[in-house]
Amino acid sequence: MRVGFFQFTPRFGEVSNNLDKVVETLDRADADLIVLPELCASGYQFVSQEEVSRLAEPVPDGATTKRLVEIAARRGMTIVAGLPERDGRHCFNSAVVVGPKGFIG
User: Among 70, 101, 80, 69, which residue's Cα sits nearest to residue 5?
Assistant: First the structure.
């Protein structure tokens, strides 16, 4: 098993651009398991609950999880990634695991 990680500095609030960078990098990766940073899509310096609420996503139906599922399927890899999760009115600092067959947990 080939295991790797992709450490980078996500730009705060730029989810689409951060995910583009992740996808571009993982498209060149040769690994079975990749670990991404905490809050890799949203960035990390929340200063208010409103920022967290704006950037948090449902799991597994949010944009970040869906994009990660796509790249995992295309590249045949498993990905662990941190993201701000929204479940109703509550937000969490969560991680998702996705693989070639979709969302794992």
Answer: 80
Distance CA 84, CA 39 (A): 6
Query: Scanning the structure block, which residue is given the tokens 């969560």?
Result: 94
Block residue for tokens 């139906």:
61
Please list the alpha-helical segments (H only) found in 10-98: 15-26, 49-55, 63-75
- Long-range CB contact pairs, 85-88, < 8 A, 24+: 85/56, 85/57, 85/58, 85/59, 86/53, 86/56, 86/57, 86/58, 86/62, 87/58, 87/59
Distances (CA, A) of 55 to 22, 36, 44, 89: 17, 18, 11, 13
| Structure confidence by residue, pLDDT tens digits, 43-71 | 988 899 999 999 999 999 999 999 999 99
Stated pTM of the model: 0.93
Q: Kindly give the pairing relationship between strand 90-99 and strand 102-103.
A: antiparallel
Residue 31, token pair as written in the block: 């690994």
| C-beta atoms surrounding 88 within 10 Å | 6
